[in-house]
Amino acid sequence: MNKTLDQNILAAINSVVGKGPVGLHEPTFAGNEWLNLKECLDSTFVSSVGKFVDRFEDDLATYTGAKHAVAVVNGTAALHIALLLAGVKPNEEVLVPTLTFVATANAVSYCGATPHFVDSEGTTLGISTAKLRDYLQVHTQQHSGQCVNKATGRVIRAIVPMHTYGHPADINGLLAVAHDFNIVMVEDAAESLGSTYYGQHTGTFGLIGTLSFNGNKTITTGGGGAILTNDSSIALRAKHITTTAKLPHAWEFIHDEIGYNNRLPNLNAALGCAQLEQLPVKLIAKRALFKRYKAVFAPVDGVNLVAEPAQCQSNYWLQTIILNSDHMHHRDTVLQTTNQAGFMTRPVWRLMHQLKPFTQCPRMDLSEAEQLSLRLINIPSSPSLLSIVE
Ligand SMILES: *Cc1c(COP(=O)(O)O)cnc(C)c1O
Q: Is this structure's pTM higher than 0.85?
């Protein structure tokens, strides 16, 4: 092949998804969505109470294997509440990958805490365990059972691994580091509904895990999120503070602390119940799409398709190509050529430590994430893309 890399990539995408324009990740509503929504409208239960909220929470717990699921308005709110319940307090620090969506770092800030950015690694696209352990060894000390950042004097309370594009991070390695340094783990599983690590669903390993059902995620409730936990008291607290901390009473309005209005409306939950029923089919379609891309990208020099890590099942939320290091200077040309041709492709999020609100935050050497951010490109990933072909 003597065409340029961007043309080869364009041809490969085109051969899989057909004619453009094609979005990055579009929702499909092929099940009971209309039926459930009609039931909401007919019953007038559209808002903060209704049977679909309870059912969605039960269905999520059953699907993920978590003891409890609490539905909330979006994934960002889920993270915020999860961090509060993990004990994150003002003037503490939380370890967050710099390679993530801004919600992870924002949620830490909502607690009055400071994100402390850590590096990623290339096989999982998640936090680099080895680098993290070495770093904590040198830069922290234990003070009455708490991990303290020597440079800032602040407690490092929690760590938030994120399962990038649906690929599970090195969970066992990270759990061991968290355990050894007395740090609580909260998993940002916003992108990994349907992804498992050694057969166990992501978001169920840490003290708390969070999901997102935004419109671009694997399943959607319009906007929505959930808090997963095996700890019954945390689940009760999560429900309580996301529903204005109101004490149950037939008519009195008594709130025993400052709560949040973060509950998921019944309308959105109705959508969620129908979407969750279709998740297995979507996962099959997404895996098939990965295989098709894998085949067409195999002969293209200079680029590889990101595959699920060993012992993991990825939901393949966003299909991702990774340019070889000696081809990363082509990234913007690839983005230009593919987007111009009507195939939506996107680079990774601007790294957190490079964003204005977070430039002053503590961080380790982030060179691997910086390299990855110049090499990763998401390509069209909708599960519906293959239905015509298969
Ligand atoms: C989508 C997402 C969230 C949550 O997003 P919401 O839009 O608030 O539901 C959080 N973290 C990551 C990594 C995400 O991709």
A: yes
